[in-house]
Design a protein that fits this description.
Blueprint lengths: L8 H8 L7 H4 L6 H11 L2 E4 L8 H9 L3 E5 L6 H21 L4 E5 L5 E6 L3 H9 L3
Parallel strand pairs: 1-2, 2-3
Antiparallel strand pairs: 3-4
Helix pairs in contact: 1-5, 3-4
């Protein structure tokens, strides 16, 4: 779970719904850049939950997420309270689990306040695959 979602309310609600939850700040420095922690999340096979709806439009963060092979679920309404975000993610959890089984990573999906899950970035775009092939590892 991204640090922007807090450490208690959303996490406890998801755990109560049977989800395994890892908190960003329990594994990474609080001020870690997305480009630093996302590759480790990908190596560990974790899923990202965030309310950073700009992650798909900031090129460095998008590249880090997709290159790391991460599945990310983004809550779309940034003005929700902790309990409202918790309800949205808990409602969405069954759909998120199905998407994790049926959709190859990487991807980004939107979670609405009502718990509706919509795929918004699927797989790795061709331009990014080309860029990663050209860049030194």
């Amino acid at each position: 779970m991204d640090r922007a979602l807090g450490t208690v309310i959303v996490a406890e609600a998801l755990r109560g719904a049977g989800c395994a939850v890892e908190i960003h700040d329990h594994h990474f420095p609080q001020n870690a850049k997305d480009t630093d922690w996302l590759p480790e999340v990908g190596r560990r096979g974790w899923v990202v939950l965030t309310k950073d709806h700009h992650i798909r439009t900031r090129q460095n963060e998008l590249i880090a997420l997709l290159a790391a092979g991460v599945a990310a679920f983004v809550i779309t309404a940034g003005d929700l309270s902790g309990p409202e975000m918790a309800r949205a993610f808990v409602r969405a959890a069954p759909k998120m689990k199905r998407m994790l089984v049926g959709q190859p990573r990487p991807f980004i999906a939107r979670v609405s306040p009502a718990g509706v899950v919509t795929l918004i970035v699927r797989n790795m775009p061709r331009w990014l695959r080309r860029q990663l092939r050209r860049s030194p590892r």
